[in-house]
Write a structure and sequence with these properties.
six-stranded antiparallel beta sheet, binds adenosine-5'-triphosphate, 302 residues, Rossmann fold, alpha+beta
Length: 302
């Protein structure tokens, strides 16, 4: 099905600095594609200051038929959080240093191919998760990875290289933390190297923490990496990058619709890559099919 006729007005939220990629030409391409297909096109360029508030104002002022986030996971997360529970779908043109959600949604990573979504696509519903009421669309966690995300955000440098450098520096000295996790089905109590609340599958780095997660199954997974000898680190890393972490004896998965995580050691956390402090009791809930997303046409409908 081609939705071209229904698309009247689209908002494009462009992060000019994401992925260190210049987007001047892209802006012109977007305008040309919209003109060609009779679509009214509005552009908002992020500044890094109060972007969410400014985009919310635009959404309140005008009814858009879709909002495209053009940037990395941070930009996608801001736009998505404003569209949850509305009838307005989220589109993604992946142009960040981390493009995790777009990969899990099978959005083309090639910009030219992704731009086709402007006029040719299907709309599907996906689940979202909330942590103490704060939306998470992709992956949130406590523990080692969250610590690396915090240090990465505090540092001045961008990109996957500096993330890997921080991870290497922190790895040897990191001690697992103690958690109690009560889900609607089971209870876990013990130490973990990291605790990931996963609506989706893989981080922007391509490390796949939840290979069997499904974005619209009405459930989320709490993925634990339990304490392991440092010598097992390489094997765990290998399994993360070969979609086989489920086969590790140090991994555990709690599949659920709701959970409460007691963060007894006050470990840091992030939601979709943004550091956040939610206190020591984190209530997690699934919101089935609460976000509409713009996706490529299935091959049999091409
Ligand atoms: N015009 C701007 N100038 C500086 N920073 C900006 C600007 N617009 C957005 N930002 C910042 O960009 C970050 C989000 O970037 P995003 O995740 O989309 O791309 P990225 O290349 O993957 O970035 P990162 O690797 O830092 O996550 C946020 O920290 C936001 O504050």
């Amino acid at each position: 099905m081609d939705d071209e006729k229904k698309q009247q007005a689209l908002l494009f939220v462009i992060n000019p600095i994401s992925g260190d990629i210049d987007k001047e030409e892209l802006e012109e391409d977007i305008k040309a594609i919209c003109k060609q297909h009779g679509i009214a096109c509005a552009i908002y360029k992020t500044t890094g200051e109060k972007d969410k508030e400014h985009i919310r104002e635009k959404l309140n002022a005008t009814k858009y038929d879709g909002v495209f986030a053009i940037g990395g996971d941070g930009t996608v997360s801001i736009v998505a959080s404003l569209l949850i529970g509305t009838t307005t779908p989220l589109g993604i043109i992946p142009l960040g240093s981390g493009n995790g959600l777009s990969k899990d949604l099978h959005v083309p990573q090639d910009t030219e191919e992704a731009l086709v979504l402007i006029h040719r696509h299907v709309i599907r519903n996906i689940d979202t998760v909330s942590l103490n009421g704060v939306p998470s669309i992709h992956l949130s966690d406590l523990g080692f990875n969250a610590l690396v995300v915090h240090k990465f955000c505090e540092g001045g440098t961008r990109g996957p290289g500096s993330y890997a450098w921080i991870a290497m520096q922190e790895y040897l000295g990191y001690a697992p933390k103690f958690y109690r996790i009560e889900t609607d089905k089971e209870v876990f109590e013990g130490e973990a190297f990291m605790v990931t609340i996963a609506n989706a599958n893989a981080f922007g780095t391509n490390a796949n923490i939840n290979p069997n997660g499904i974005l619209n199954d009405g459930r989320f997974e709490i993925c634990l990496i339990e304490p392991f000898p440092k010598t097992a680190g390489i094997s765990i890393l290998y399994k993360l990058y070969t979609d086989s972490i489920d086969t590790s004896v140090y991994s555990r998965r709690l599949s659920c619709k709701s959970a409460t995580i007691y963060n007894i050691d006050h470990e840091v956390m992030h939601i979709d890559g943004e550091p956040i402090d939610l206190g020591d009791t984190i209530k997690v809930d699934i919101h089935p099919r609460s976000l509409k997303v713009i996706l490529p046409l299935p091959e049999d409908e091409e």
